[in-house]
Amino acid sequence: IMKNGTVKGGGMYYLRDGLRERGLAPLGTVLALLFGLFVIGGAFGAGNMYQANQAYSQLATTFPSLDGEEAKVYFGIVMAVLVGLVIIGGIVWIARVTAFLVPFMCGTYVIAALVIIFGNIGEVPGALGTIFTSAFSNEAVTGGIIGTLIQGIRRAAFSNEAGLGSAPIAHSAVKTKEPASEGFVALLEPFVDTVVVCTMTALVLVITGTWRVSAEVNPGGAKIVAAPGSSEVIREATAGQFLHTRKSDGDHIEVIALVNGAFEDAEEVEGWVSANEVTSRAGVPVTSMAFASVISWFPLLLSMAVFLFAFSTMISWSYYGQQGVMYLFSFVGDDKIHLPVIAYKIIFCLLIIVGTSSSLGNILTLSDAMIFAMVIPNLIGLYLLLPVIRRETERFLTLVKETDRA
């Protein structure tokens, strides 16, 4: 708690102060500085450019006429202005409207997923079987089980922020007599996000068959050949047809199936297509296709939901990054700290435009790197602070038991 009554918290502070109490002040100082730096990078990547990219991708999927380089820039400018009004201009009402709409959109998404799942309840066991058999198939083993696990952990951390140390920045502002109680509340976030919502999304993708979709054939069609650069045509794919692909050598992409949309309705094919004959399909647009195959109007609602989710996530992560900036530049004094903060906010808004214009692969690479960088100092600190965590947890649970008895 600062002298002016404001509350600051998160990885920077519990790493510095917690390790100092354990006689590890130099290590705590270094880890806190690293975390403060990396949380800014995380805000720019996962909390900004990725969100903007996926919001635009969903919009372009729903409204193909908006697909194009100029449209990407215009969309980025509009989103940057809206975010800037909140984080720079302090327009609180936009944030309040978003806070009201996001739970509604989240609820609608869950209901739509449940409609598809219960409407195809007989296919759920097969879908679960597909998930598990695919995870441990010969293809998965060949690709490396460890590599698959790493990819899964990446996406899980990206989704629920568990272990990153970002959520404590927000939870530290909560008024509570017992910090451990807020910790238990925070435990619900990864459960709801990953175990509930992500599992439902996975079932929808598998039930509708869109889990196989990774590329779409361009208007000119595509020729599936026996090997990269080969003239032996195995099959011709028509414009708009979806492909299940496996790997790429840069100029050519390996095709393993032609996807027809229905559950398990795919024609196995072994061949290659030229990379310029297809367009990659990944992320939110594939999820949109899954819902659209059952609920035709849902992509419209999903476009709005993704925009609101992205908008609210940007606001949250901008706050995380701002706390990192304030920690790193605390040496300038409270009377000048607003200068680096304003510079950070301007850069944050400009990167929204970069996010809508960049490729998803490049943004994911940057985001994964920053998230991994955040995890390292945070996990080191948590490991060294385990005795403190254990002590506080046991004390809180004892207090709860005594309160119940009374």
How would you describe this protein?
The chain is α+β, with helices and mostly antiparallel strands and about 400 residues long. It has two domains: about 10-210 and about 290-405, no CATH class; about 215-280, Roll (SH3 type barrels), CATH 2.30.30.40. It is about 65% helix and about 10% strand. It has 14 helices and seven strands. It has helices at about 10-20, 25-60, 70-85, 90-120, 125-135, 140-145, 145-160, 165-170, 180-210, 285-290, 300-330, 340-355, 360-385, 385-405; strands at about 215, 220-225, 235, 240-250, 250-260, 265-275, 280. The strands form two sheets. It has a five-stranded antiparallel beta sheet, with no helix packed on it. β5 and β6 form a beta hairpin. α1 runs parallel beside α13, α3 crosses α11 (about 300-330) and α5 (about 125-135) crosses α9 (about 180-210). The longest helix is centred in the N-terminal third of the chain and has 38 residues, at about 25-60. The radius of gyration is 24 Å and the shape is globular.
How many beta strands in the DSSP annotation?
7
Neighbour order of strands in the largest sheet: 6-5-4-1-7
**Which whole number gives the mean pLDDT?**
84
Distance from N terminus to C terminus (CA atoms, Å) equals 32 Å
Number of domains: 2
Structure characteristics:
406 residues; SH3 type barrels; 2 domains; 10% strand; globular
Give the structure's gist in a few sentences.
The chain is α+β, with helices and mostly antiparallel strands. The protein is 67% helix and 10% strand. The protein starts with 10 loop residues before the first helix and ends with a helix.
